[in-house]
Amino acid sequence: MTFTQAQRTRRTVLQAAVTAGARCGDREVYRDLLERARNVPPSTWAAQREAARKLCSGCPIRAACEELALRDGTGSRADDGVIRGGRTGQELAIAREIRQPARLAAAAAADRHERFTFAYTLTTGPITKKGLRREAVERIGAMAMRGYDRGEVWDIAVYDAVGDDVTDDFAFAREDCPSQGIAA
């Protein structure tokens, strides 16, 4: 994915690309490389930061990772304690706040207007709700999770416009749900 393609792509597709193809793969394994721990001295962080940049430089989805970091507000001008898409938190903040604020605001607004399909199953049968905005999916998802906890709802899933399962992109699924209750 090129940087131009990443800029024109909606958030759920970017996130799916990062999840499926990131060179850093399991972020937990690379956490020390990609994020500075509080007690790490500057000289050690400098070496880790350069190793992270090298890892990112050969990543096939670097552009998608950087675009997500820009849209999500990762990094600040006061702290360089993170690397995303080969850029430091300071570089990301400068790009977001000074170089590309209008483009990123438009992309974030378009992401908020993206539509989803929410599906779940009750004892009476499957239910599918199409054309929902992110906020509606979060609200209905929270209610569905309460039903799941009572054993009344199962096979909860969210699909994007192209039909990919994006359930894990939503807070209700990440925070409240054991993985066996969500449709894969």
Offer a quick outline of the entry:
By secondary structure, the protein is of the alpha+beta class. Helices cover 52% and strands 15% of the residues. Helix 2 (11-21) packs across helix 5 (62-72) and helix 5 crosses helix 6 (89-99).
What topology emerges from the helices and strands here?
Layout: H1 3-7, H2 11-21, H3 27-34, H4 42-57, H5 62-72, E1 83-84, E2 87-88, H6 89-99, H7 101-112, E3 115-122, E4 125-133, H8 134-149, E5 154-159, H9 171-176
Antiparallel strand pairs: 1-2, 3-4, 3-5
Strand content: 5-15%
| Arithmetic mean pLDDT | 87
Strand arrangement in the largest pleated sheet:
4-3-5
Question: Would you identify the regions where 5 or more consecutive residues have pLDDT less than 50?
Answer: 176-181
Tell me the span between the first and last alpha carbons. Answer: 25 Å
Computed CA radius of gyration, to the nearest angstrom: 19 Å
Residues in helices, as a percent range: 40-55%
Q: State the shape.
A: elongated
Helix/strand-derived class?
A: alpha+beta
Total helix count?
9
- Major sheet characteristics: 3 strands, antiparallel
Tell me the total number of β-strands: 5
The SSE string, one letter per element, is HHHHHEEHHEEHEH
Output the keywords.
single chain; 184 residues; alpha+beta; 3-stranded antiparallel sheet; two-stranded antiparallel sheet; 9 helices
Task: Report on this structure.
- With 184 residues, the chain is α+β, with helices and mostly antiparallel strands.
- The chain contains nine helices and five strands, in the order αααααββααββαβα.
- It has helices spanning 3-7, 11-21, 27-34, 42-57, 62-72, 89-99, 101-112, 134-149, 171-176; strands at residues 83-84, 87-88, 115-122, 125-133, 154-159.
- The strands form two sheets. The chain has a three-stranded antiparallel beta sheet with strand order 4-3-5, covered by helices on one side. A two-stranded antiparallel sheet has the order 1-2.
- A hairpin with a 2-residue loop joins β1 (83-84) and β2.
- α5 (62-72) packs across α6.
- The longest helix has 16 residues, at 42-57.
- The protein is elongated and about 60 Å long.
- The chain starts with a helix and ends in an 8-residue tail after the last helix.
